[in-house]
């Protein structure tokens, strides 16, 4: 047991300095720049306090932290569905004042139109984005192939498994080609095995597309599997406590022992920040737990139109 403890400590020491390093992105070179962002809900809950975050083009940034630390609020502020009470959010230097076609938000539910086939769901979204009719089918089929749903293009959503529905939703999101993909625990409702398949698929697609992704998760392993960066958040008030670059080559595997060592390190950091939060004086008089700010629509994909 003592030996195991020493090995664990050694793992921690190895993981921290080499594989997780503080991120340092200059606002001038950022695709997304968030400065001094505050958000107080009407019931005075401080969902975000002084959040500063710069994301380079093509990065895959995971927002990780316990329930209530403001991950979703931050994502919705990026999507333009929450108007922050203070600070600024900009994409390519332009301040965000609402939803836009450059960003696309995906939720846990696939939210496909049940009366449309997989291809129909995608061509519909392409039509809504103004893609000419004669290009829609080919583009839809390209992305159906990319998420490995060939053979299911003419299938209705109720005939698909949960993982397949999520793949169709992902194909639709990628087909409309936003420059920034915002994902709120998209695989949270899937079983463990499907979830790993979806992570591998998303990573392969992301490596190929080079899209800027901001991905909310509770799951440390998921953040380390997917992210180029992991932003650790803490509650009461919701804030960023650490912003770390993950220096582990891709594609990654959950079996990689360095990933385990890093996960232990991250859990340790999260516990330390939660401990600090518990010691801090309360700032949320009537905290109300909800998954989603009430102003945010609930379909799986918000196209920004
Ligand atoms: N519409 C709302 N009105 C009032 N308070 C809200 C609203 N939406 C969220 N909150 C509160 O804001 C804080 C942050 O919520 P948020 O959903 O952003 O956190 P989260 O980290 O995404 O949590 P989870 O992981 O559980 O989804 C929480 O205390 C929550 O109760």
Automatic annotation (TrEMBL):
<dbReference type="Pfam" id="PF00005">
    <property type="entry name" value="ABC_tran"/>
</dbReference>
<dbReference type="InterPro" id="IPR017871">
    <property type="entry name" value="ABC_transporter-like_CS"/>
</dbReference>
<keyword id="KW-0813">Transport</keyword>
<dbReference type="InterPro" id="IPR050166">
    <property type="entry name" value="ABC_transporter_ATP-bind"/>
</dbReference>
<protein>
    <submittedName>
        <fullName>ABC transporter ATP-binding protein</fullName>
    </submittedName>
</protein>
<dbReference type="InterPro" id="IPR027417">
    <property type="entry name" value="P-loop_NTPase"/>
</dbReference>
<dbReference type="GO" id="GO:0005524">
    <property type="term" value="F:ATP binding"/>
</dbReference>
<feature type="region of interest" description="Disordered">
    <location>
        <begin position="270"/>
        <end position="305"/>
    </location>
</feature>
<feature type="domain" description="ABC transporter">
    <location>
        <begin position="20"/>
        <end position="260"/>
    </location>
</feature>
<keyword id="KW-0067">ATP-binding</keyword>
<dbReference type="GO" id="GO:0016887">
    <property type="term" value="F:ATP hydrolysis activity"/>
</dbReference>
<dbReference type="InterPro" id="IPR003439">
    <property type="entry name" value="ABC_transporter-like_ATP-bd"/>
</dbReference>
<dbReference type="InterPro" id="IPR003593">
    <property type="entry name" value="AAA+_ATPase"/>
</dbReference>
<feature type="compositionally biased region" description="Low complexity">
    <location>
        <begin position="292"/>
        <end position="305"/>
    </location>
</feature>
<keyword id="KW-0547">Nucleotide-binding</keyword>
